[in-house]
Amino acid sequence: MATDVRTIAFTKIIKEKLFAGSEFVLKSLSHDAFVNDITVEIPISGTLPDIVENRTSYPIAVTTRTDTKQTYDLIEFSLGVIKVSEKEQKELSYDKSASIMKQHIDKLNDRIALRAAYNLGGAGLLSTGAGNIVLTTGTASASIAPPGSVGTLSPKGLMLVDMANAAKKLDKDNLPREGRYCLMPSDMYWDFVEINKAQLLDIDFNKNLSNGDISDGVVAKVYGFNIMLRPHTLLYANAATPTIKAVGAVAAATDVWAAICWHQNEVSRAKGTPKVYSEIGSPTYQGNLYSATQRFNNSQMRTDGTGIVTIVQDT
C-alpha cells in the first residue's frame, strides 16, 4: 500500500498532540514500559516480613515474598475514514489534510479524556459509605446542571467544605499533599469561584500557580488540589447512592455532574503506538483515504478506590 508525507505527518501529530487539552490524563503513573502487546502487566511486591523491636524469640520464622501482577488491557480507539479528493488537494487554499488531522486529534482526545475520567471516577467502585463520594452542600442552582438536566434539576453548588472533605479522605489514605489533582466541569468550577469568592481571596488560591502549572492546564490550587477543567467530566444518576453513567452517555433529566479528585501515584495510564492507515489514489473513491487507531487505557492502582474521591452534585 502506498504512503505519502501526510501519513507520516499524521502519525507524528498524534504522538505529539495526543493529550493536548486533556492534560489531566498525564497526572498519573506511566505504564507505557509495561505494555505487552495490548495488555499492561505491572509487577506488585508481596508482603514484607514484620519488624520486631528487641527480639527475644528465636529461631526467627523464615518467610518468602509472593509477588503478584496487576493487569489491564488497552482499548483501541478507532477513527473513521476520511477522503481527500485530488481536486481538494490541488485547488484549496489551505492544506485540507492538515485540517483533517487536527479534527481527528481533537475528537480522539475528547473520547480518550471521557474514558480516562470514567476510569478515574471508579467505574462503580467508589461509595459514599467509604468516603470516596462527597456530596456538594452549596446553594442550589439550575445553571450548574448538565445540559439534559437544565430546567429539571437544581444541583447544589460546590463549597470549600466539600473540597476539605475530599482532602481529608486523601489524608486518611496517607497520601502526600504534593501530587493531588481535581478535575471539574467548567460550570461547577466557575460557580464554586463565585460562591466562595471571599474565602478564596483570603487564602489567595492562585498564589502558588506557576507558569508550568498553567501550561499543564492547572487553573487554581485549593486545599492542596491542583484544579483542572473540562467542559464535561462525569455524569452520575441522581439518587440516594449516586451511580456513575456510561462513557459518552447523554445527560438525562435526573443526572448530575461530578468532580474527580485523585493522587497521581494512585492512578496509572498506558498507551500504544498510533497506527495511521492510508490509501493514496484510491480508484474506488478517486482520492486519498486516511484513518488511524490509538490504543490507550488507565486504571486505579488499588481496587478499593484508595486515592480517588468524586465530589457529586447533591440536589
CATH architecture: Alpha-Beta Complex
Q: Approximately how much beta-strand content do the residues carry?
A: 25-35%
Secondary-structure element series: HEEEEEEHHEHEHHHEEEEEEEEE
* Ends apart, CA distance between termini: 57 Å
Strand element count = 17
CATH C-level category: Alpha Beta
CA-atom Rg in angstroms: 23 Å
What is the count of structural domains?
A: 1
Largest sheet: 8 strands, mixed
Query: Which structural category fits the helices and strands?
Result: alpha+beta
Overall 3D form: globular
List unreliable stretches of 5+ residues.
none
Secondary structure: helix percent: 25-40%
Mean pLDDT score, rounded?
A: 85
CATH topology: phage-related protein like fold
Counted by DSSP, the helix tally is 7
